[in-house]
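Worked example 2:
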Amino acid sequence: MEKDKKTGIGGKVILGITALFFYLPILYIIVFSFNDSRSLTKFSGFSLRWYEKMFADRTMMEAVVYTVVIAVLATVVSTIVGTLAAIGLSRSRRALRNVVEQVNNLPIMNPEIVTAIGLLMFFSAIGIAKGFATLLLAHIMFCTPYVILSVSPKLRSLDPNLADAALDLGATPVQALTKVIVPQIMPGIISGALIAFTMSFDDFIISYFVTGNGVNNISILVYTMSKRVNPSINALSTLVIVLITVALLIVNLIPFMRERRRKSI
């Protein structure tokens, strides 16, 4: 009994240290984003000057807009394409499904630098000028496999005769897809969309190789600013943390509120 108690205390200590290791840098960034001075080590007083400077900086605001727009568009397209691809694979022969799943895993297992160079050479070979279009296409490409990977397990857990039963009861193929299949795999779709959004929002290596014509996301902007100390980076990072936190809260609260409303009815 005493040994179990010591093990429990040790586990909590390790958990606390791990959480501190992960979240202390984030708290550090948030606190120093309100620092009155340029110092990144000494807090001299509360101020919003770096937020004012950030919002007044056109380059920073353009990077934020490009990042959000690219992430949202890539998430929407990759979620739709990945979900339809996963549904199609679930209805395919086992041999074909195994081959496509192995191919789907290649972009996930490949080092990002290899994918980035491959996309750079591909866009150059077909004559597409680097810019917004190439950045969006690249993000859709590397986000789609994660959606397929998230949706496929949910499809495997479904009754294989579910769609046929819906068709026998008079539903059209579109109705069977949207009203029967999709609601059953919605948790997998949401998980895939969240992963796709996070991957797109956070990407640097692939974005750095395929962008051009002044189209920069936040990761590229922070990289270019890292050579000269600028406390506005803390304000920009805090803004990103807030956006991601709000998105996670919305995604987690909506199902909870729906379930609560359903129980009240």
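Residues 71 and 200 are 5 Å apart (CA to CA). The chain has one domain: 51-264.
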